[in-house]
Specification:
By secondary structure, the chain is α/β, with parallel strands linked by helices. The protein is built from 15 helices and 20 strands. The protein folds into 3 domains: 89 residues, Helicase, Ruva Protein, domain 3, CATH 1.10.8.60; 91 residues, Nucleic acid-binding proteins (OB fold (Dihydrolipoamide Acetyltransferase, E2P), Beta Barrel); 265 residues, 4-Layer Sandwich (Purple Acid Phosphatase, chain A, domain 2), CATH 3.60.21.50. The protein binds 2'-deoxyadenosine-5'-monophosphate, zinc ion and fe (iii) ion.
């Protein structure tokens, strides 16, 4: 790209606008004979004077300004025809490797068409029973759990003998370096004591327990119906080699756009979209862009309306349909050869309770107008080439943070690791995470994923746990007043890009202008 054209584009973006495809091509051609910077300065000046500002500048608008400027004779000419800037040296044209690579997408699990809850007590019971039975199965695959018995069996054993029980944690209380647990299986319940005096390691483990999760407890049979914990075993995921793609295709993993919010980072997100088009960033970054075959969005596409009290004051777009129309405008700008995969978050139009079905086509038509989108439920599993991704927005991470010591908004990786260990995406019922009872518990992590992708925290984090790549994909929304009050410090505007052939992650920081765009440290 000629440096003048680059400057014209940077100027446009920094002013908060974006050129649509045709306008960009027009400016590109024009820049070989005219001064694109001066044209854009004039264009922005005119837009700023308009009562209704637009985000996307169209070709017709550029043509009109160009024409009018001549006719009105205010400017003699933009640039000079006598000395055309030389046609840019045959710079390396942007050739997208990903354009030639065939997409390989297979949806492994999507709750959308299986949701049938009516909300009766029986259904809650069925859902919890399903959770218990299936988690028990996962636990029993472990050699160290195979000899576990039911609570009833363990209660029959005499005092001071060793027992192992598989149980759900229904209560957890800590007092004077002792954690008291109430546990349950399908038949009965019991009390388990983890005491620092008898076992230093086990009390640490007990503190990591999430309510309503199913684990195996190794204990000594005490008096009454009490057990003294010696060890706690989570179902966990086995250590393994992740699957990798056989070709160098990349996936951009993002989330939490919050389009419609005053704090939506329009410029930064525009840069991201331009980068996907090979029209932003240095040669190294363009090389990465040329391999991007998938853009995966883990929820909160829009800011929504009525999500929290007085949210209206924070909205730039107050109509939900308009919010999705704006999303669609951005989607249209993503090259057609890139496959777009989306799931809803807690700000999107879908029911609030988990599992969430895909955003409904009849309700948010605008979202699906512009281009093809693979729209799935939350959570979903999808295979891209050989690589299995678990996509989950991440609402329950808040519950994990609230109940486990030393886990915070700044450490979403640790919270995600705990969910993998629990083999469940939202163990705790009745806190921040709403859950709808389904006969089948869709939140169980049945298969250990190669990539576990969540958002919601607005803090980018890349981690690895037992062969699973953990990515929390940050956000495209500046810190809101609500988040400031909550002490949440987001680091938005950075997109983690995964090479599916190596599972290496490159976080690209779009918060700086073109020349300074760089690979962020994560
Ligand atoms: O969530 C954005 C961030 O704000 C994320 O870090 C969770 C946090 N958050 C959101 N709602 C709440 C409530 N009600 N309490 C505490 N923390 C919260 P987002 O879903 O994008 O708004
Ligand atoms: Zn969000
Ligand atoms: Fe969210």
């Amino acid at each position: 790209m000629s440096s003048k054209l680059q400057r014209a584009i940077s100027f446009t973006i920094d002013a908060g606008y974006q050129l649509d495809k045709q306008a960009f091509d027009f400016l590109s051609t024009l820049s070989q004979t005219e001064d694109p910077v001066r044209l854009m300065e004039e264009v922005i000046k005119r837009i700023e004077a308009l009562p209704q500002k637009t985000l996307f500048i169209q070709r017709s608008f550029l043509e009109e300004i160009l024409e009018r400027t001549f006719k009105e004779g205010k400017e003699e000419k933009l640039g000079s025809l006598e000395s055309p800037s030389p046609i840019p040296r045959a710079r390396k044209a942007f050739h997208a490797y990903a354009e030639d690579a065939k997409a390989e997408i297979e949806v492994i699990q999507d709750p959308t068409d299986e949701i049938c809850e009516t909300g009766s007590i029986e259904e809650y019971l069925k859902c919890f029973q399903d959770r218990f039975k299936r988690t028990q199965k996962l636990l029993r695959r472990r050699i160290d759990v195979r000899d576990a018995t039911s609570i009833t069996e363990a209660l029959k054993s005499s005092a001071n003998t060793k027992v192992k029980i598989i149980c759900m944690i229904t209560e957890k209380r800590e007092r004077k370096q002792r954690v008291f647990l109430t546990v349950e299986d399908l038949e009965t319940n019991a009390t388990v004591l983890a005491s620092q005096k008898t076992n230093e390691a086990v009390i640490k483990k007990a503190r990591m327990l999430l309510l309503d999760q199913t684990v195996c407890i190794c204990a000594i049979r005490g008096r009454n119906s009490m057990f003294i914990a010696e060890d706690i075993i989570w179902p966990d995921i086995p250590q393994r080699q992740a699957h990798k793609a056989s070709v160098p295709v990349y996936a951009a993993l993002i989330s939490d756009l919050h389009i419609g919010s005053k704090a939506f980072m329009r410029e930064e997100f525009s840069r991201f979209v331009l980068w996907l088009n090979g029209k932003f960033g240095n040669e190294d970054l363009k090389d990465i862009a040329s391999h991007v075959k998938y853009v995966v969005i883990a929820g909160d596409l829009v800011e929504g309306i009525g999500i929290y009290p007085r949210q209206i004051e924070d909205l730039a777009i107050t109509d939900i349909y308009e919010q999705y129309r704006m999303v669609s405008k951005f989607f249209e700008q993503i090259p057609d050869y890139i496959e777009l995969i989306i799931i809803p978050g807690n700000h999107d139009v879908s029911r609030k309770a988990l599992p969430q079905p895909a955003m409904p086509r009849d309700y948010v038509e605008a979202l699906y107008e512009g281009r093809q989108v693979h729209s799935l439920g939350n959570p979903s599993s999808v295979r891209l080439h050989e690589v299995e991704l678990l996509l989950y927005h991440g609402r329950s991470l808040e519950d994990v943070i609230a109940s486990i010591p030393n886990v915070s908004f700044q450490t979403p990786g640790i919270a995600m690791k705990l969910l993998l260990q629990s083999r469940h995406l939202a163990p705790t019922y009745g806190k921040k995470t709403y859950m709808a009872p389904e006969k089948r518990d869709f939140m169980i992590i049945e298969r250990p994923p190669d990539i576990f992708h969540s958002g919601h925290m607005h803090v980018i984090k890349v981690d690895n746990y037992r062969g699973t790549l953990i990515v929390n994909s940050g956000a495209w929304q500046r810190q809101t007043e609500f988040q400031r009050k909550m002490g949440i410090v987001p680091n938005p505007g950075i997109a983690p890009i995964v090479n599916l052939q190596t599972l290496q992650v490159t976080p690209i920081d779009f918060t700086a202008s073109s020349t300074q765009t760089h690979i962020a440290s994560s």
